Amino acid sequence: MGKNLVIVESPAKAKTIAKFLGKDFTVLSSVGHIRDIPTKKGKDGIPPVDVNNNFATIYEVDPEKKKIIAELKKAVKTADETWLATDEDREGEAIAWHLAEVLKLDAKTTKRIVFHEITKPAIEAALEHPRTIDLNLVNAQQARRILDRLVGFELSPVVQRKVPGGRSAGRVQSPAVRLIVERERDIEGFTPEISFKITAQFALKDEGMLHAELKQRFKTEEEATAFLEKLKPAIFTISDITQTPGTRNPAAPFTTSTLQQEAAGRLGFSVKATMTAAQKLYQAGKITYMRTDSFNLSPIALKAMGDYIKGNFGDKYYQSRVFKTKAAGAQEAHEAIRPTDATIEQASSDSYEQRLYELIRKRALASQMAPAKMERTTATITISTATEVFEAKGEVIVFDGFLKVYDYSKKEDSILPPIESGDVLNLQQALAAQLFSRPPARYSEGSLVKKLEELGIGRPSTYATIISTIQDRGYVQKGEGEGQEREAIQLILKENEITRNVVKEKTGADKGKLVPTASGMIVNDFLGEHFTQVVDYDFTAEAEEKFDHIAEGKKEWQAMLHDFYTPFHKLIEASAGITRAEAAQAREVGNDPKSGKPIFARLGRFGPMVQLGETESEEKPQFASIPNGLRPDTITLEQALKLFELPRNLGKNDAGEEILVTTGRFGPYAKVGTKNITIKGHDPYTVSRETVLELAAEAAKAEVARHIQEFPKEKIQVLNGRYGPYVTDGKTNAKIPKDKDPAKLTLEECQELIKNAPAKKGKGRFTRKKTASKK
User: Per the residue annotation, which of 289, 475, 669, 726 is the catalytic one?
Assistant: First the structure.
């Protein structure tokens, strides 16, 4: 063991740092957090956060980290000096403090080092300028964690008891759900405005073609038709050609949120995928720290990028810039995300990591390059029979500037053909296309991050977790709809004849967008009515500001928690009188025309459903699940009645088994005898018996291919799985060694494999110990 022990939180980070340090240093990893606040009360009934004792908090060690902690304790005893080198944000500071507490290190004297990039100069500089653990940062992180736990401890059980389908509520997740719900309702309440856009194609003398658009739009078909009639005898003349110089400036280097937005828009990455790839690039020493809200670049980085730009593109492409950070309370790091070495083009063999690296590298280099210069040309075309004018526009890049790094091509220019003022044009065709104004766009992961940042909700380190949580809870899902068809009118003037066409177009597509579920909307409404404080945007943002003040040493963390908890707990106490029926928000859709019974739409234990008949009546009501795409608050009587047509009986198969078609939580399916077969992609109301039997036959073939052998008496099967053959007794799955033939395994061998199968890993929950640390 060397004289110096360096502890980081990631094995990959430890591996990279170890390359830069000599034989006197040993680098070990804690593998993330080693302890946390429990999610439940202990067997002794003591809550993990004692609100009556100034928020005294119990922290418990993660059972899966016991071996790691034992190794770290052993290493600490034999080291002359221990250095805590966790990440430089609040979360990293908290990990360092927890390590000091568990490893019995003195937080006031143990050396704490931070660095924004994992390079040899940065590590050496950090070792030369150590500090101690910043308890203000620790307190800010602890206050956030305690506050979130208190909301979880007290509000989530209320939601679970009162709201059917409710699973949890959170200080940050609930405002995020509110944003998505409000956007959905804005879309539902939107009435599109109709207009007609006129475009034209003109033939030129040299057989070229000029495309132009009328500056004015018309509100009705009649107005558009009348205008096209005017064009029949008209003479079209180019009356003016203007050329205007313009510039396009590069964007600032990436912060966490802008990286997430750009990766989502350009690469199609989820926020989680972006942060995973960025984390690996950082740990490999390829980029600077990826959790930051600063646009700042270090003087060393600026000089290195300037030298690279001048050396590879020429002096005229270089322009030094300093971008000022706009985010309130920016404190997570001191520098924007950039490559540690801008000369490196290939940073990883992993395609996700490499594509993200290219995005980061090009953005950072472009930020220090000259603006692109362009020339915009506008040709005005007068109409002899009307006062309106057409305009043809083109744009040519005369100096590519920062676009050079993005491999700009001249093909991207929109060049106008050779034309002169006074030219008379020959109209080939004019098109009046009916347009519908668009409703507000649903949030994507990237645009939600942008909105959360604008409102001050969450911080760079929390965006990915927020978005994952609201989807995991079933409050929000990624849309899969391609949209609905609608008709649009097209009026075409060609050879002095006007033709009217009606074309089909898609509207309302939500594929890949964040869409609230029925339970998400009802939980949001429940919280908005009874716990306004929790979903209030300003309140959530103010809490973040207070965390910043704690980090800066301007506010005492227990006082901040008291300010929140006292009014919050009163709301919890007042919620005792709310009935489950009130929270469920049952809605009467109408009456069944056959029986006259009322039909209700509501959220049930297993999701949204419709109910035919009163619950209190002597005759038992009928129930039907509401499928994806419909919601209790918007379903119509016609749609509800159709749901009661399921299950459909399609007769019997050749074996005399009954065939039923219905829909459930996971979509439409058929029940053939005792077997369930998915019919995803088919309409359960129209799918034929023949189609169901074909799907059943395909499922049977797949089952045969999956089934290797079985021992029915012992209920043991040998199956082909996604990751290869395995043995199962229905409770435990055991992998089969490569040197064993799955088809020749004996019963005894199968039983032995199941017996020796590794235990299933827990879900990351902490088990209460008798001894617990407090702060």
Answer: 289
